[in-house]
Amino acid sequence: MPEYRWPPMEKRRWMGKRISRLDGPAKSSGRAKFSSDKVAPDMLYGAVLTSPYAHAKVTSIDTSEAERMQGVTAVRVTAPAGTEIQWAGWEIAWVSATSEELARDAIRKIKVSYEVLPHVVREEDPGKVGNRSKPAGEQVTGDPDKAFKEAEVISEGQYGIPVVTHCTFEPHGQVIAWKGDQIEYYPSTQAVSDIGNDLARQLKIPATQVHVQQEHMGGGFGSKFPSDKWGAEAAQLSKASGGRPVKLFLERAIDQQIAGCRPSHFAKIKVGGKKDGTITVWESQSWSTGGIGGGGMPPIPYVFTQIPNRRLNHMAISLNTGPQRAWRAPNHPQASFLTCSAIDDFAAKAGLDPLVVFEKNLSYTARPEVYAFQLKKAAELAEWKKLWHPRGDSGKGRIKRGLGIGINTWGGAGHASKALVHIHPDGNVEIEIGSQDLGTGTRTIIAMVAAETLGLPVTGVKVKIGDNRYPQSGASGGSTTVGGVSSSTRKGCVNALAKLFEKVAPALGAPADQLEAVDGKIQVKGNPAKSLPWKVACQKLGSSKISEMGENVPREAPKEGLNTGGVGGIGIADVSVDTETGIVRINRFVAVQDCGLIINPKTAESQVFGACTMAISTALYEERIMDPVTGRMLNADMEHYKLAGIADIGEIVVHLDIRPENDQRGVIGLGEPPIVGVAGAIANAVTNAIGVRVPMVPLTPRRVIEALERRSA
Amino acid sequence: MSTINKREGKEKAKPRFSRRGFLQGAGIGSGAIGTGLLEKNAQAAPAGVLGPDAVPITLMVNGKPHKLTVEPRVTLLDALREKLNLTGAKRVCDRGTCGACTVILGGKAVYACTVLAIDAQGKNIQTIEGLAPEGRLHPISTAFVNNDGQQCGYCTPGMVMAAKAFLDRNPNPSLEQVYEGLAGNLCRCGTYMGVRKAVVEAARTMRTKGGTHA
Lengths: 713, 214
Description:
A: about 725 residues; Aldehyde Oxidoreductase, domain 3; Aldehyde Oxidoreductase, domain 4; seven-stranded mixed β-sheet; 20 helices; B: alpha+beta; Ubiquitin-like (UB roll); DNA polymerase, domain 1; about 35% helix; about 10% strand; disordered N terminus
């Protein structure tokens, strides 16, 4: 069996180096072409009519006027009379026309009548949702009643984290052309290898007829896996228009309502334990919604899963709102926020430093040593000893400063992936993988791994991704891509190189297994004097290229050691709160992240910066606001659905725990874990600053002021 | 600070004929939209009003004139993207909030989604495609690469153009000024840490070597 293992840390030429992303120049010069940038001469534009009502029955629909409009090429109805609409924004009818303006005009000419039905769109008060809440059944471990009776300290609190949207910058949609028995499909997707199969299933056609291409995509965060109704309907519009390509990307307002959101999580939590900070018992009553399907129980107590006595109750609340989709580390940020808030309140009740309480209870976690190390490191970087003070004891003046802790865990082992490596007789190298680069740097790390393995410069390798005709590679979700594609690339390159060695061996007068590829040469191991330059070596191939596959099989990957999963992380927030205006400012956010082998520290750090930034945004600004009267989303835009800006994130300090013992674990995905503990850390820091818990994020000025008023009342 | 800066941070050109300007010019507030007043006013509008049919216009883009035919309601952004295939500027919010469509109109950064194409005539429109010739990079673009001030890259062209307009006016900015200068541009991947460094580095490069591309 060939040797696939990563070269030792000290011998790596490219892996571990801070390489600028290879598609960076294309992106920062505006030349990178996203699917939504596609323009074709005969292209049509699609538009969708959606329901203004959150709950209604379609009683009649008349598209005749739209159909008669000049320039309209097709009209389709997907919610005919009789359809029960379950959320505002539900797709009713679709139009294609020669311009986008015209398509939208036509949409306005479609007459729909509805029988409006009662709706429920808010869940923060579970007492007001009527029959929309469904209990999940009680889970009891140990003897919580006895444990509370024996507890020396008991704290109670209520915490909430609302629905937020994905708000991907490139909207959901595609350009698509269905001509004859062939579909050319340019989606914005996280699943190049899979999305064509999903579309074929929707359209009931053979999967072989769908060709997917995507050069660049503008953000997914978990919301861009399926082909969706808009994919199927755009295809149908194209077919009905003689196969002309149709561009249909959702308008922002529609995208915000229906193209993805993260479920809310609320909980009343009671924690009991000893005066020394040891937690002995946890009781929670949680509720959540992800739309009409309700919402599952968050994984609480988060990370501290082995608290010996636990009672958990949960209610899934069904709302007439756009459905949930996976959102960067699904359910973890909410669970971490709830758990870290409750632990912080327990520490305050016990009169202890929360750092001590987190440390004290690490035996309940799956990786006590990792977290112990990280708490120490994060505390040092955040100047915890100097800056922490007991809750609310932050001195005089209107600006109060505080610190808070959050915790994370994640898997991140590589997904199934195949890489086809071609070595051409002229020395050119191509890697084909049916993967995608979401902005994480996938292209770059594939090139780095290939260059490392083949002894070539990073620019000497051509990476081809974004096409479902390339070998199958997993969807980019769960932080699985880097482990998957790095392992398949490594194996494909090792396999291809073995073939090349066989061809070159006679010329170097050494057995093939005694050769190595370094510094642009094939040479006898450890003997640069007996070598051939790469190009000369490749000429030995005659006129036939080498094409070899490498495959990452998740089940077998741990044995090979190329990738594994399972990490922890600690975040510490340092905030200032203006007690007159209620405005929260981030001074610094320290993220200490456990990791495996880091292929590119530059883009890896960017993942952590990005995760912290996105989470700061959710902690301070983001919330989907539903109007109980109309049942509509009040902030289905980007003016009132607020995202953090460049001045809002403070200074983010990232410490990736790159050490030989971690490097030996192989590659582990990093996109998700650092987002998890941020909201909890910030909420705790604000509480530490102002002396009172703001029970719900985002920590808007109004909520901060209200919490302060309750304290003084 | 954030919300205020997002609005005021960018020095916006005042188009003659913006969506908002049209409403104000017609002497009615936005509250009248649903009442049919707007339609009546539009019908009674004096001669010389363009549309609703498409009209021929000339846009001066990156120093070159482009003749095209657009309906008066078509935004500069959509005209650039769909008619001229200049797709660097991106449509994200489409309502003048996120800055992904930023171009430089007559020397000032504008949100191309809130300027009508017909109203962009007579001034030079600089798009990111005009920053550097094919195959070469403007120092700002280079700085975004060097400092990894981009991930998915969808907001990046707008960031780069906002930085260009900002640095043209503030060649030696403090970090606080960078915050204000780029406050009109949002990013979802969370690249601000890199963007901050990129703008500072670009300013330094442009001060020492000028705005020429590498």
